[in-house]
Amino acid sequence: MDYRPFMKQIPNLITLLNLVFGCLAIIFILQTGQSIVYIEREGYTSWDLPEKITWGCLFIFAAAIIDFVDGFIARLMKVNSAMGEQLDSLADMVSFGVAPGLIMYQLLRLSFAREEGGLDTSIAWLLPALLIPCAAAWRLAKFNIDARQELSFRGLPTPANGLVIACLPLIIFYQQFGLEEIMLNKWVLYLLIVLLSGLMISNIPLMGMKFKNFSLKENLPRYLLITLSILAIVLLKWAAAPVILLLYVLVSLVTKNKLA
């Protein structure tokens, strides 16, 4: 029996696991299993971030790992295909576009629910969260038809967007550095939505993290970003995500003429 046709599909099957993790993330983000806001006996409203949302965030991280692994395996097996590229974009749309957009939707719900009369807030105030999946779709479509983005990018990659947003509920849940009040400020959330959506559809040159070789000279910007990111993670834990995003943009812009 000839197993070669099946072997060629292994990277594509792994890509589908990215999609599965994205769907699981959406399930946990939406089916929180408890009320976000409840009314205490004294008449005051209190709030809580359901733990299941954090599980959804972890599935986004799992999808990001698969997103890296499938490409690595495809290159290792030398079975890159047009179908694989399309599957990758479709899976990324769910895992790093739709799921993060729903996280923003839930955080906006929680932000308004903490205010007086917030439980009656119109859904219109929550719909800006849908800019995230719309921008992700635009970004992925542009990536698929732009030959310049093989080793570097024009605009923020959707996995980076997904990982930054996935860290927000974890910052709130673990109450890191007292940032939960800032992360649950609706104006901060709106600003993040506009900023991340704008970065995704922009033409800002950003470096790719694929290594053609491990030469220090040719990959110095990448090694610098990795080193600074590890340091930020050690010091800031989940709160490192927005810092790493800023470093990524700055290092890319400063070294854009040196990027392969």
Describe the structure in your own words.
The chain has 260 residues and is mostly helical. The protein folds into 2 domains: 4-203, Four Helix Bundle (Hemerythrin (Met), subunit A); 208-260, no CATH class. Helices cover 66% and strands 5% of the residues. It is built from 10 helices and 4 strands; from the N terminus they run ααββαααβαααβαα. It has helices spanning 4-8, 10-30, 51-77, 82-113, 131-145, 158-173, 180-183, 186-201, 216-236, 240-254, and strands at residues 37-39, 45-47, 152-154, 205-207. The chain has a two-stranded antiparallel ribbon with strand order 1-2. A two-stranded antiparallel sheet has the order 3-4. β1 and β2 form a beta hairpin. α9 (216-236) runs antiparallel to α10 (240-254). The chain starts with a helix and ends in a 6-residue tail after the last helix. The model has no long low-confidence stretch (mean pLDDT 84).
Notable characteristics:
260 residues; mainly alpha; Four Helix Bundle (Hemerythrin (Met), subunit A); two-stranded antiparallel ribbon; two-stranded antiparallel sheet; 10 helices
